[in-house]
């Protein structure tokens, strides 16, 4: 390698010398010093590209080259004062000015969609219409805000002399051996402490009263460590505290990114472990009869919330909570075992830690924005799918996908741009929700989740099944939901094997007159994996198939699908791309291009057939609409999106819960306790492609 470096250096010197001599020969009247200036300028631009600007080459060199050309033309004009040099300079300046205008412009919304934002079947009412209070409205408790921490923070008075309670430091050296080199040197110089004395700092939003109150912790994700992130969740802290829940925003800025280096996910165990150490501190205060916080906390009702890498950290903490030792180093004993009832991951990662955490017996909620440039896919659904319910306690898991929401605005201090300069100048900010609207969605769903999980108030559960029940409290925007209760019985999950005609020994699948029928893994917009298989079904009654013959997909059981009373049939449905019908050999489960017609309204009939051949039918749209693909244009320059982010959209499923009572309204002799066939009949839309997953039912409670 050393010889290669020396050879490369000599080669570069020779090339510069030859280039210098060539310019001297072609432009004989130009002094050598000016040639050197231009060459050094070009070298500087190349160095900046390599070390400072992560822009695509074509954009960077076009703008930087134009700027350098302006300097050259200006020098040329000042020397010659000719009309030609003036016109050349003017033309180049106009080009540079246009480039700067494009960077300064907020962008545009190229994907207009007039499809209804919210939908529900006839006879349904929103929760507001039946008198339910908005979960995002302020509660009856006054809020006492204060901080606790080391009391010796060099940078922030709120964790120095202004703390109400002093906390001990903790030694994280065995969990973060990567605290070395320049990361160690510059961080310790900035913060005044190292990995052996991490502080337990927190911002507390405390309901005034005797308690005990449930406890919720929220932790930020990765951001510049010198642009403190822990103050960005006051909108959640104040709301939850006013509704009787102690909320603490945890400070973990000292493990965030910095110019001296990013731990690249190696710090994820520490992020999770620190949350559990904070819970230990609260337990100690709560059990100390002499402490001001004695008896204030209901330690049987705990919720963890995290944003970005913090969203992955809370799932890791949920996994660590029951372990006896740190799985990456058994020299670190664990003895936590807290009663964590709920986990909320906001625009999370799910790939930083090299272990895939499988949560068990805990309620789970994840939120994601479609215009998240930092985490461009709904990674929170991967732990959603891995989560297991193993006991008889009633729990649920939910996902909320918000169109036009970005990454940063879930934190009130991060702002609209998901990237820092210079990358932020490329982002398309025009389509984004206002920060207040995005945080309003978070408040509604997180508060509703907390009400159910920490207080046993299930009034708000319908909004996780269909966002239309909360439309009076939400901005006028597409909000897709996933929901699965612990009582859900899966019939078909498409994860079994590669035979698409069978599910088990007693359940088979048949299809007729379909243009497209296949099972495969769903991909993310950047060709990653959603870690989920589904069936893709396409039909086109305008082609050679007779319109008298309806395409069908049918699940058949040798026995009865269920023998007890059933509350609802449940399945997940997402829109596919009609271009997949054109050439099945080229079809992939990825987003289509901009010119494809992905705004078709899809609908189909769901038919249940009992053991005597009697049927009951309902249209999917009688419950809610299948939302078309929600496209995003992340950057101002369309050609950059593919390279920087990926496709304009990816398959997003939403859960449909269809009450059995809906079927009985048009088939009085149908027996809903003796169903042997579940059939999709594609008779409501002339053509379409849908992605279907997780077909099952919910028993009657």
UniProtKB/TrEMBL annotation:
It comes from the Bacteria. Keywords: Membrane, Transmembrane, Transmembrane helix. The chain crosses the membrane at residues 6-26, 33-52, 58-78, 83-104. InterPro entries: AB_hydrolase_fold. PANTHER family: CARBOXYLESTERASE TYPE B DOMAIN-CONTAINING PROTEIN (PTHR33428:SF14), CHLOROPHYLLASE-2, CHLOROPLASTIC (PTHR33428). This is Alpha/beta hydrolase. It comes from Maribacter algicola. The lineage of its organism: Bacteria, Pseudomonadati, Bacteroidota, Flavobacteriia, Flavobacteriales.
